[in-house]
Amino acid sequence: MPRNRENCLRESSGRRHRRSRTSRAELIFAVSLVEQHLREISRAWRLSDMVPIFLAAILESLTRRLLELAGNEAQRRGTERRITPELLDLAVYSNMELSDVFQFITISQVAPAHR
């Protein structure tokens, strides 16, 4: 049974409970911060309400994938207990799609040897 808006917004005490766009989209990255940064760097006066949500989801997905690959590399090495900038660099440049996305990005504290 689909939940209607009134039931979602009511607490047990009867007051309305507002949910953030981040929690409604089931994201970790804050949609409001993404929107704020978009408005700061963009000259677009009008943005769809969905743009910051989609962008936050894309950023979260890229971050999740990058950390997963770096964690796998750390596990494969066996000696690493944390994800280092070198592991992030290895994860980026060992994956073809991420390598294209991060082509012009420099990861701090890593010598650009893979390029």
TrEMBL record:
Location relative to the cell: Chromosome; Nucleus
Keyword Oxidoreductase: no
Alphabetical UniProt keywords: Chromosome, DNA-binding, Nucleosome core, Nucleus
One Gene Ontology cellular component: nucleosome
Superkingdom: Eukaryota
GO terms assigned for molecular function: DNA binding; protein heterodimerization activity; structural constituent of chromatin
GO annotation, biological process: heterochromatin formation; mRNA processing; nucleosome assembly
Family: Belongs to the histone H2A family.
Record protein name field: Histone H2A
Native species: Mus musculus
Taxonomy of the source species: Eukaryota, Metazoa, Chordata, Craniata, Vertebrata
